[in-house]
Design brief:
The protein is α/β, with parallel strands linked by helices. Helix content is 31%, strand content 19%. The protein is built from 25 helices and 21 strands. The strands form 5 sheets. The protein has an 8-stranded mixed beta sheet with strand order 3-20-16-19-18-17-9-10. Strand 7 and strand 8 form a beta hairpin. Helix 6 packs across helix 25.
Length: 659
């Protein structure tokens, strides 16, 4: 079969319904009515001339037809969102900037959750008349908290294109949980909204798909339980059917069932240090001495948390996640960590249907009057955002999209300057705007280019972190009967392009109803982390980032169709018939860099991390983002926004006293 025939079988070029915008109305149109690049997203590699969708059509943010959540194709770090920043990195000068004449009390660079929270918290302290401008380089606010909308006839289907859930809210600081409560979020309601019994009632379990390229044959095996972790994905109960060497099967059982101390000559503290500085792959091969096929089974399991495989995740961290091989080992607890009482673990259910994009939307609704109807955490889920309100001159808080900052500087010495000037580009033109203070809620790695006057040590610390690349893909399918027939709700795929395929979280809240019947259209979530095993974690992230920038949408679509066809073949799935829409959320700069015990001091105190040095205030400029604490979580983004705002207020008080 030639490539053209394979593409036809996969459904490449088949009608995929998407939403286009004509005369202010959202219309569903078939692929036959649109050119290929219009439907599937443009080639968006580093040398591409692709443009942001709306600006390329002359549709400004104030236009009634401007509505980014409904776009499909290539999203996340979309064409038009990164080119100006790359030009800054490469040393190209900005154009002549026009002074807009605008003056603000606060300018926030970055409209993700941390930036929006900073605007919210500043206004809370400074008063409702405080003038605030939020600049963001994307066509939508929220940063990684990306909302993906789909339509099945008149029915709205939602997917999360980035930040997934409110994880373990009992561990949130008083500032982060307090902000959520002020927005109307009551996490206890998710116990009602998240149907924890749905998949169990259908006897759906996790599964593992073994691909022929890695394991010699395509085979899907059901796991022993629900959920997505090492104990439920790997089908130990069906070990005889796993397509690996017989010795590897025996080794899998040994790791899982036998209580063996693989480091008998070390005391508990020495064992802890050994596991902290040994990858799980090396632990398996050189300490537990398993067959190499065992490594293939576990290699990509930590992708969703670490964006690398077991070659770059410590055995100590894998032990903490429940990976096998440690049952017979007594190991000392890790130093310099908070201790949590037994039983504090919370279920992973605190999830809006669009992920934490709903938190970003709640923040915007609070900041900008009239931007969205309603007043509850339930009605924000289906509320239609009015983007035309976000940058309205009458609003004291303005959110300006498609605007990439390129220069942030004090007008005078940082210690005595009264204003900060921000230069940014929008629709090919350059503008200058001034503010009494600025919060940089963008990526840490960008800050040294925005503020070259910062101390060298601080710029070095800001550049230390390398964000972790990943791809969150949402696929709308006409029904999920194939999953029901196969008896699975989520699939781990250790050798495939996407390392997991899962049915969406079964959450219904307010007017939004999850498609709980297998006969209904639904959204699948696919994860890819483009890591390169064998390199250090940072080098893997850099290589993966480049891969994402040079991979066009067509490649993603072909991989999606092929993998779903092969994985769900036993359930009768046909990608040419069953796929209705695809949204690829590409994040070359994804998760915040989290310090890795394999490549950094294993017992490094939190106060000694480079991110602490990086986030120091610089005159009237402060820094807020999840990079500032080295953890990719929503509460961290909020906490860092709180810190940055407090630093601004403290600087203002000091300046007032010395005036």
């Amino acid at each position: 079969m030639n490539e053209s025939d394979r593409d036809k079988k996969l459904g490449m070029g088949c009608p995929i319904r998407r939403r286009d915008f004509l005369n202010g109305f959202a219309l569903a149109v078939g692929a036959s009515l649109l050119p290929f690049e219009e439907l599937h997203g443009q080639d968006s590699g580093p040398d591409s001339s692709a443009q942001e969708y709306f600006l390329s059509k002359g549709i400004a943010q104030q236009d009634p037809s401007y509505y980014p959540p409904a776009l499909t194709g290539m999203r996340g770090s979309h064409p038009g969102s990164f080119e100006a920043a790359h030009a800054l990195r490469d040393g190209r000068e900005t154009g002549d900037a026009t002074d807009s004449g605008e003056r603000y009390d606060l300018i926030v660079v970055g409209g993700g959750i941390s930036g929006l929270a900073a605007a919210y918290l500043y206004r809370k302290s400074a008063g409702p008349k405080a003038k605030i401008l939020v600049l963001d380089n994307h066509d939508d606010f929220g940063g990684h908290a990306k909302r993906n909308e789909f339509r099945a006839g008149d029915r709205l289907l939602l997917g999360y294109g980035g930040t997934q859930s409110i994880e373990a809210p009992r561990g949130y600081s008083k500032e982060s949980i307090g902000l959520l409560k002020e927005l109307g979020v009551d996490v206890q309601r998710f116990y009602k909204y998240y149907d924890q019994k749905l998949y169990r009632s259908m006897q759906l379990k996790s599964g593992t798909f073994f691909d022929k390229e890695t394991f010699g044959e395509d085979k899907l095996l059901r796991g022993p339980g629900e959920g997505y972790d090492v104990n439920t994905c790997v089908p130990i109960q069906a070990v005889a059917q796993i397509p690996i060497a017989e010795q590897a099967r025996k080794d899998l059982l040994r790791l899982k069932e036998e209580s063996i101390d693989y480091l008998p000559d070390l005391n508990p503290e020495q064992k802890r240090l050994k596991l902290a500085t040994t990858s799980y792959k090396d632990f398996l091969l050189h300490i537990a001495k398993v067959h190499p096929d065992v490594v293939k089974v576990y290699q990509t399991l930590p992708h969703d948390l670490y964006c690398v495989g077991i070659d770059a995740v410590s055995a100590g961290n894998c032990r903490g996640m429940g990976y096998p091989g440690f049952k017979g080992m007594t190991i000392a607890p890790r130093r310099h960590r908070e201790d949590y009482a037994e039983g504090d673990e919370e279920p992973y259910i605190f999830h809006f249907p669009d992920g934490n994009a709903s938190i970003a939307r709640l923040l915007v609704r609070s900041l900008v009057p009239g931007s969205a109807p309603g007043n509850t955490m339930e009605d924000i889920v289906t509320a239609k955002m009015n983007y035309g309100k976000l940058d309205h001159p009458a609003s004291s808080v303005r959110i300006r999209l498609n605007s990439t900052a390129a220069r942030v500087k004090h007008l005078g010495a940082p210690s005595s300057a009264k204003e900060v000037e921000v230069t940014y580009t929008l629709a090919g033109k350059w503008y200058k705007v001034r503010g009494s203070a600025t919060v940089l809620a963008c990526y840490n790695c960008v800050v040294p280019y925005l503020c070259p006057e910062m101390p060298e040590g601080q710029k070095e610390a800001l550049a230390y972190a390398v964000k972790q690349p990943l791809v969150y893909t949402n696929v709308q399918i006409r029904d999920w009967k194939a999953f029901q027939k196969l008896g699975v709700s989520g699939i781990y795929a250790p050798g495939s392009y996407f390392s997991s395929i899962v049915l969406d979280f079964p959450v219904s809240m307010g007017a939004y109803k999850f498609p709980s019947s297998p006969n209904e259209p639904c959204v699948l979530h696919l994860l890819r982390t483009p890591c390169k095993p064998g390199l250090t974690a940072k080098d893997q992230f850099k290589a993966g980032r480049y891969e994402l920038f040079v991979t066009p949408y067509e490649v993603f679509e072909r991989k999606i169709r092929d993998q779903l066809n092969r994985t769900l073949a036993g359930g009768g799935f046909d990608s040419a018939r069953d796929i209705q829409a695809i949204t690829v959320n590409r994040w070359p700069h994804g998760y915040a860099y989290e310090y890795n015990q394999l490549f950094e001091p294993p017992d490094q105190r939190a106060s000694e991390r480079p991110c602490v040095r990086a986030r120091k205030p610089f005159g009237r400029i402060t820094i807020a983002n999840s990079d500032s604490d080295g953890h990719a979580y929503t509460n961290i983004a909020i906490d860092q926004a709180f810190r940055a705002v407090q630093e601004i207020l403290a600087f203002g008080k000091t300046a007032a006293k010395s005036a």
